[in-house]
Every structure is written in C-alpha cells, then in structure tokens.
Design brief:
alpha/beta, Udp-n-acetylmuramoylalanyl-d-glutamate--2,6- Diaminopimelate Ligase, Chain: A, domain 1, UDP-N-acetylmuramoyl-L-alanine:D-glutamate ligase, 2 domains, 9-stranded mixed beta sheet, 5-stranded mixed beta sheet, 16 strands, globular
Length: about 325
C-alpha cells in the first residue's frame, strides 16, 4: 500500500534487530525468486533484511517491502517509492513481480501465490517471534473492543509493569504513543511493535482484533495467551455478507493457531454459538462469561463445555 497510513507508526520499530538472510526466509516460507522475461532469477546469497514493511511510505533502510494485492490497487505499483526509501527486496505475487521488474530493475523480487497469508509469520520470524516473550491478549467483537482492551491494559500494566496497546484509538509502546490508522494494524507493523515492546522491557500487549484483520491474516504469526469475545451485532455485512459468515470470521481467532485460551461473553445467541463451537472443537479451553443475568445464556450449571463466570453489572 502507499496511502502512507503507517507513517505515524515509523518510530514504533525496535532499535536493534539481528538481520535475517533472505534465502532463509525463501526456504522457510516457500518463496520463489521471481523469473524475469529473459529467464533469469535474482541471486539471494548473502542478502539480509532487518525488518518488514507493508506501506511504501513507511519503509526503513534494509527492510523487505511486501507489495500486497489490494482491493483497488496492487501494492507493487508503489515499489519504486519503497526502494527509494531503502527497501532491499520485494515480496509480492506473480502479477506484482512483473510490475516490480518493470519499474525497479535490479531489485530482488520474491513471489508467493498469496503473500498476505505468509507476511505475518514471515514478519514474526524477522523480528524473532517477540510475542513469545510477552503476555498477550486480543479482543474481538462488534462493540466493546476498545473499552475492554483498555481494561486489560490497566490490569496487565499493574501486574507486568507496562503494557503495549494496539487498537482503534492509539498505538502505544512505552512512552511512545501515536494515533492508530485502523483497529488492527497490518502484520509487519504489529510484529515490529511487539519487538519494540520486548526491547523496552514492556511485559504485555493488549490488542484489538477486527473481523477484517482476522480474515486478512493481520494477526497471523502469533498466538495470544487469551482471546476475548464481546458480542456480535449487525455490522460489516458489506464484507462478510451474512451474520453467520461474520461469526465464522471471528471464530478463526479462537483456534490454536491464534489463541491459547478463550473468554467468551455468552449473553446473546452469537456468543453462545461461538462458545459451543470452541468447546466442541476441544482445542483450547473456553471460559463463558455472563456479565448480567440473561434469559438466553442459560444457567451456570448447564453450559456446553467450559466454565461460566457470572458477574453483576
């Protein structure tokens, strides 16, 4: 992308990041050197990257620029800006590779059929899996994500000394706080924030997880310690089409690939359905939370799997 949405987050980078060989990333994530029209491919031997960026307006020297296909414009269009800013290589799809070769001769290009699906795990690898060194939470739901994430920020800060926050209002690591461009930032931005948190001695992270972000792989590459669900209301149906599809998107967060434990509010039918699904899968433990007495939530003695905690308003 090149709407410069992440320029405000430019400072939220680790000051030190041990470089990673591009050839190792190609091997580990099944990336193929793009073939040029003359049949040659770029040599990767010895080439290192020290970061990953997805916005051409937010690239630091030595980073890998990921040129993702967008809904309106292909990110490869903005590769020249990224290279001028210091990107040493580009990851894109085969269509994007042709554009990069045409506009950036000499820059190494790696391809993947679905680069968005690998950029999260790849960024986590480049930043040395920072989430594994933090206590992490992610909250999803139509309403209440921001409020809940700040409750968690306060609790985690009290117990861990400091907490990183990434959500609708702001991106914050330690003393650095900037306005957030969206509810859940792209995976490379999230991973480098987590790396900065580790570097600064921040012990925890409180994240908001939008349904768009879950579907678009922005949270891939990390497993949060606890994932929370607030509610599901009629919204975003231009993207998800139906409420069932909307729930399916949210449910992806409550899998072993993304979370170690689930806390699900069950005061409406969607929360109950999600909790039942997670419990039936039996892959991660689930706690059902009832914030107020609810005629649809059943009684604490009759849930389908998991435990029920009832709280007063």
């Amino acid at each position: 992308m090149s709407n410069h949405a992440y320029e405000s987050a430019a400072r939220l980078r680790p000051h030190r990041c041990a470089p990673t060989l591009l050839s190792d990333l190609a091997r580990d994530f099944a990336l193929a050197p793009a073939r040029r029209e003359d049949g040659t491919t770029d040599a990767l031997a010895g080439l290192e990257v020290s970061g990953v960026s997805v916005d051409s307006g937010d690239v630091a020297a030595g980073e890998l620029f990921t040129a993702l296909p967008g809904f309106k414009t292909h990110g490869a269009v903005y590769a020249p800006e990224a290279v001028a800013a210091g990107a040493v290589a580009v990851l894109t799809d085969p269509d994007g590779a042709a554009m990069v070769h045409a506009n950036c001769p000499g820059i190494p290009v790696l391809t993947h059929p679905d680069p968005r699906a690998v950029v999260g795990p790849l960024a986590a690898a480049v930043y040395h899996h920072p989430a594994e060194q933090l206590l992490t939470s992610a909250v999803t739901g139509t309403n209440g994500k921001t409020t809940t994430s700040y409750f968690l920020d306060a609790m985690l800060s009290a117990h861990r000394g400091a907490c990183m926050i990434a959500g609708t209002v702001q991106l914050r690591v330690g003393d650095i706080a900037v306005e957030s461009p969206r509810t859940t930032v792209e995976a490379p931005v999230l991973q480098r924030m987590l790396a900065l948190a580790v570097e600064e001695g921040v012990g925890a992270a409180s994240l908001e997880a939008s349904s768009h972000a879950i579907v678009l792989h922005r949270l891939d590459g990390m497993v949060v310690d606890v994932a929370g669900f607030t509610n599901l209301q009629r919204d975003h149906l231009d993207f998800h089409k139906t409420m069932s599809e909307y729930l399916d998107a949210k449910a992806q967060l409550f899998t072993p690939e993304h979370a170690r434990r689930a806390v699900i509010c069950v005061d409406d039918e969607w929360g109950i359905r999600l909790a039942d699904r997670v419990a039936a899968a039996g892959q991660i433990p689930v706690d059902r939370y009832v914030p107020t007495p609810s005629p649809t939530a059943g009684t604490p003695s009759t849930p389908t799997g998991g435990s029920v905690t009832r709280r007063s308003p």
